[in-house]
Amino acid sequence: MPYAVLVRRAVPLLVAGILVAGLAGPAVADDSKLAKEDVPLQPTAVLRGKNKLCCGYPLVEELGWALRFYWLALEEDFQHPATSPRRGRGKDVPANTWVELYTQDGLFFGRVPERFAWSLRMEGSGLMMDGRVVNYKGPCKYGYGTCFEQLDVNEHPFGRGAGRRPLVPFKSVAVDPSVIPIGEPLYIPELDGLQLPDGSIHDGCVRADDTGGGIKKRKMDFFVVTHANFRFMLDQLLNVTWITPHIEAPRCEYMRDPTSW
Questions:
Q1: What is the DSSP string of 91-130?
Q2: Are 89 and 214 in contact (CB under 8 A)?
Q3: CATH topology for 57-70+162-255?
Q4: What predicted TM-score, i.e. pTM, was given to this entire model?
C-alpha cells in the first residue's frame, strides 16, 4: 500500500485515540489564564473518611444542645458595686447591702456583699478574699438563708462538683445526670481547636463532673473559672452557644474517671 494512503488512514485513527484517551482521563480545569490574571485558585480538597478513633457518637443533631457557662464567684469582684458581675436576677440585688454567711451547723462564716452571696449561691463555688474556697451547701435557718462550707484547697482548689468531684478548669461540665452519667467523658467538636485564655488550644474533650438545678435535658454548663474567662471564651466562640456533644469518643477516654459521686 502506498505510504500516502497509510498516512491518510492513520491520522483519523490517531485523532480518535487521542479523543478517547481524553474522555477517559480525569477532567482538568484550564487554570493557566486564571493564574496569569492573579485569580486565587482553591486548593484541591482531600477526601477523608470518618476517623473511628476520634469522635464517638453524637447525642443530638448538629448544634442541638445548649451551651452555657459558669465560674467561681470571686469576692474581690464584688468590692465595687458599679463593676461587679451581674446576670439574670442578680442584677436586681441591692448594690450596697451586706449579709452574713453561716455553715449548716450555725458557725459564722463571714460578712459579704449580698451580690457576692447571691452569685455564690448561683455558681455553687467561690473564692473568699482571704483565700478560702467555699461551696454551696443548701438552705438553712441562719443569716442569709443559704449555708456554705469551706473546702480543702488541696482537694478542691476550684470548687466541688457532684459528690466529691473536683472541678477542673475548661474540662468540667455540669449536666442533667438523667441524660448524661456523671463521670462520662464527652467530645465537643465546637470546642476542638479553640484558644483558651492562657494561649493553649482545647482538644474538645470535657467530662460530666457537676449538676445544677437549672440544667435540664439538652443543656450543658461549661466551667471556665472566672467571669473574665467567660467573656474571652464567648468571643472565641463568636457568640455561638449551641453544641453537638458526642459520647464514647476514643480520643477523650483519658478523661474517664471512676470516682463516685
A1: GGS-SS-EEEEE-TT--EEEEEEHHHHHHHHHHSEEE-TT
A2: no
A3: Barwin-like endoglucanases (2.40.40)
A4: 0.76
